[in-house]
Amino acid sequence: MDKGKWAEKNDAEWRKILTLEQYQVLRGKGTEAPFSGKYVHTKDKGMYQCAACGAELFSSDTKFDSGTGWPSFTEPANREHIDLRADDSSGLTRVEVACKYCGSHLGHVFGDGPKERGGKRYCINSCALKLKKK
């Protein structure tokens, strides 16, 4: 993936590429309503990609039902494709998950995932993803 071409996009270009909901989440660091996203209950196999730039982010093999209302994963498909950033915007200390290629906000990572699978829960907005089915 070429990080440069995504980093150069301006606000108007992102608004043309993304739906309103995607823009609010990916570029505005918003959150979709729980249980509203199309991938919350999806069991299809494949690779979850960034909805903005197509970077491969999470394998369906690491997806699990956390009961939180958002797609949850135990680990990224490739740690080099995501950035983890401190986020205290809500008054809580959290860790934001962002796409390393285009800088889009994806969700947050928490330490309450399945212990037998590393203990992490990458809580990701459905609208930040697109599934490339196997």
TrEMBL record:
Name-wise, this protein is: peptide-methionine (R)-S-oxide reductase
Q: Which GO terms describe its molecular function?
A: metal ion binding; peptide-methionine (R)-S-oxide reductase activity
Any single Gene Ontology cellular-component annotation: cytoplasm
Q: What positions does the domain MsrB occupy?
A: 11-134
Task: Answer yes or no on keyword Metal-binding.
Answer: yes
Listed PANTHER family: METHIONINE SULFOXIDE REDUCTASE, METHIONINE-R-SULFOXIDE REDUCTASE B1
What does it catalyze? L-methionyl-[protein] + [thioredoxin]-disulfide + H2O = L-methionyl-(R)-S-oxide-[protein] + [thioredoxin]-dithiol
Q: Which Pfam families match?
A: SelR
The EC number on file is 1.8.4.12
- What are the top taxonomic ranks of the organism? Bacteria, Candidatus Liptoniibacteriota
- Keyword check for Transmembrane helix: no
Cofactors required: Zn(2+)
Task: Read off the NCBIfam families from this record.
Answer: peptide-methionine (R)-S-oxide reductase MsrB (TIGR00357)
Keyword field = Metal-binding, Oxidoreductase, Zinc
